[in-house]
């Protein structure tokens, strides 16, 4: 495709989703990682514009919070239906902006549909509890109430899924949303916002229930510092989280942080190596290594290391690398030059530490895309877990380490600042249970015989340590978007004080 054909494809997808032509004009240039060429330009908001959007969303929240939760769920149900009707167009935008292959782009859109389904059911299950009171004639219970405006700051690598995790749940919880997408992927945000605006109008909900603000640091700071935003959900680097967390806490707000992941898998002597190979290749090379759950460290028992590495290097050499628009491609481009430079720097550091690059690491020329950054996923055998191995590099670099005992493997696994996703490959139940135990893997996501990538929406997503500690999507993650009230109802006709206190 020519640059003009890319632009026309993006315009067509946006128009189908209801984005007006007037939205495609502004100072912020959007480029496609497929070729490095310019796609379109959009308006870039500033701090004052963001403040105005927050105030409008807060006014909408004050109306929305009184709407019954099942009625709020009906709105989200319709959003999921509309996303399904525009699945192809949204996936096209994900590919053009984020560089994902078609199946992964479609999978990300399906994730939005799935979380809408989850949220619809949740709208009738925002349960509190009734607890026994120590005082006769009294009832003790808790109730959950909407929180306010939720600020969502999302990253380029999942330009729509993470927004939906937050927005679908927040809406059924009675909150309003102000969304700051990555400046690298604003077109997908425009499309999703247009669909949600349509649903809001259809249901007669407050027009400013969801606001989109595209921009850079000034927009993010306005959300982080606003007293009208009680919860900021931010996805990005640990460096970003170090700034966001303290600033939100300084005004006694809440933050839900999804930050860096330096994910590892342990391969034991009993592992099914064919299954392990398939799982590792997807987890380490899928999305060109640009997932927060990407497998970055492989900790292999020395008795099976050579056999497994032979399987992995053979598979890596056969990986189809190229344009995500071409059928059969499995590895698309890095998002930009900075990611490419970071990958090269990491490989240089690994070599300096005694690492051996077994396969990959080079830049791949793709016809018609001289300004794009396609790379060959790399496997590096390391003598020890050096500082570069303990550092997350957002590119397809897999470090391989050896071990002798499972305790040694778990110690290596946990000896990094991050704690997002992990896995163990074994056919030994005792080894699996040891890895899942309290003194096993210290991550928020711990898997057995499956890779670190590809979490389902039904489970709470998030990690520990420098990953931030937040939880999004399934399980009871909804509680982050609500406030809890403990209620005591006295029907005794007497004033009875707790703890046998006597006053009057």
From TrEMBL:
The record's annotation in InterPro entries points to: Ald_DH/histidinol_DH (IPR016161), Ald_DH_C (IPR016163), Ald_DH_CS_GLU (IPR029510), Ald_DH_N (IPR016162), Aldehyde_DH_dom (IPR015590), ALDH7A1-like (IPR044638)
Active site residues of this protein: 258
Which is an annotated Pfam family here?
A: Aldedh
Group of enzyme by EC = oxidoreductase
Q: Which UniProt keywords apply?
A: NAD, Oxidoreductase
Cross-referenced PROSITE patterns: ALDEHYDE_DEHYDR_GLU (PS00687)
EC id: 1.2.1.3
Q: Where is the Aldehyde dehydrogenase domain?
A: 28-484
Which PANTHER family does the entry link to?
A: ALPHA-AMINOADIPIC SEMIALDEHYDE DEHYDROGENASE
Family membership, please give it: Belongs to the aldehyde dehydrogenase family.
Quaternary arrangement and interactors, per the entry? Homotetramer.
Q: What is this protein called?
A: aldehyde dehydrogenase (NAD(+))
